[in-house]
Amino acid sequence: MKARYIDAHCHLHEFKDEDIRSILESLDVLIVAVSDDLESARRTLNLYREYPDRIKPCLGLHPWSVGEVEAPLEQAREIVRLAAREGVDCIGEVGLDTRFVPQTIDKQREVFSIFLDYAADVDAFMNLHTAGTWEEVYNIVTQRGLKRANFHWYTGPHHLLEKLRESGYVISVNPAVKIQKKHQEIVKMVPLEMILVESDGPYQYRGLNLTPLLIPDTIRVIAELRRESEEAIMEAVQRNAARVLRI
């Protein structure tokens, strides 16, 4: 049976085991669990084995991790080998970031290319980090012919939304939409066929402790901003997730 809610981008590996159990017991949610490095990729796979009907694993090397881990290129290759062995068709969190870690952008591009090669080979879904690099990442993934991609917590250029739509890509809306004005602007104008919902938990944003438990309230806020029903938003999210995640 399909879950009522879908969290399209969550760092589940950072939660304690008891908190994960509590979340899954409290909310009928499917969590798309992204990873940040090889260690978290392994934990994410272990969580998936424990909750195979509630978690979709994504493996990747976060742009912020590129400057923190030893031998990031080799680690990226090892994550790809792990994904191939386990038959994982979701890559993330990967991408480029010139806003927070511009000092490693050249190495980030090399790492990103490794994951792009794998995604293109197996037609994987990509959970993308694009802070300050929205258009560059869009150009790269389209040039590589990728069909399934989520631009998570999108606050990028308005004009790029139509290009994303034409390419079949989606964006995920974060609970921060409750207070982040530029995210609200995106939600009001983005086509409904492009919307997913995420928590990005356990990240904290301006006093918000992000968690999958905020997904229902995020849907409520989206509905209010768009002046549509919550049911319409939920149905659209289910359709969009089924298409891009193949769930």
UniProtKB/TrEMBL annotation:
Annotated a divalent metal cation 1 binding sites: 9, 11, 93, 200
Keywords: Metal-binding
Entry's Gene Ontology molecular function annotations: hydrolase activity, acting on ester bonds; metal ion binding
Residues annotated as binding a divalent metal cation 2: 129, 152
Pfam family, one: TatD_DNase
Gene3D superfamilies per UniProt: Metal-dependent hydrolases (3.20.20.140)
Protein name: TatD-related deoxyribonuclease
Species of origin: Pyrolobus fumarii (strain DSM 11204 / 1A)
